[in-house]
Amino acid sequence: MLPSGSRMRRGEEFANAVRKGSRAGRPTLVAHLSVRADTDEPPLVGFVVSRAVGGAVIRNRVKRQLRHLIRDRLHRLPRGSLLVVRANPPAASARRERLAAELDVALDRLLRRREPPKAHMDGR
After folding, report:
1. Which of 21, 7, 15, 40 is CA-nearest to residue 110?
2. pLDDT tens for each residue of 19-64
3. Domain boundaries, the chain
4. How many C-beta neighbours within 10 Å does residue 17 have?
5. Cα(47)–Cα(8) distance, rounded to whole angstroms?
6. Half-sphere exposure of residue 19, counting CA atoms within 13 Å on the CB side?
7. What is the DSSP pairing of strand 44-49 with strand 22-25?
8. Which residues pair with 69 in a beta bridge?
9. Average pLDDT of 61-82?
10. Mean residue pLDDT across the chain
11. Average pLDDT of 70-74?
12. Which end of the chain has fewer surrounding CB within 10 Å, N or C?
């Protein structure tokens, strides 16, 4: 399970990540990442699973799967970051392996965008 101190609970944190952060979409999920430069707090992660995904049982199953997957990837997030993972309707029928692969691709994209551009070898 995701540690309690790493869970996003406040609406303004969700809004900040979604409105001001970078976005990476996949068929089963969309990830939004915002990094607060003014804090050295551990990363916070929130999940959005709407009724479009399915009934309460399915939504809760998807949330549990995503929380478990994020727990193993939490160390990759920079300190002060806010990550919101929004499940799309195909997440309801996706296997855990597919969710994990798409989460990895989305996180890779978001984290790569944060890296400064590499200088050319010839100094240009």
Report:
1. 21
2. 999 999 999 999 999 998 888 889 999 999 999 999 999 999 999 9
3. 4-109
4. 26
5. 8
6. 6
7. unpaired
8. none
9. 93
10. 90
11. 93
12. C
Number of Cα atoms under 13 Å in the Cβ half of residue 64? 6
**E strand spans, 36-80:** 44-49
Tell me the one-letter amino acid at 39: T
pLDDT of 116 reads 61
Give every strand in the sheet of 29-35, ordered side by side. 22-25, 29-35, 81-87, 44-49
Percent of the chain at pLDDT > 70 equals 92
Based on the number of CB atoms within 10 Å of its own CB, is 121 exposed (0-12), middle (13-18) or buried (19 or more)?
Answer: exposed
Which among 76, 82, 69 has a CA at the least distance from the CA of 34? 82
Please identify which residue in the block is written with the tokens 């049982």: 57
Taking only the tens place, the pLDDT of each residue in 85-115 is 999 999 999 999 999 999 999 999 999 987 6
Scanning the structure block, which residue is given the tokens 């996706």?
A: 94
Q: Architecture of domain 4-109 in CATH? A: 2-Layer Sandwich (3.30)
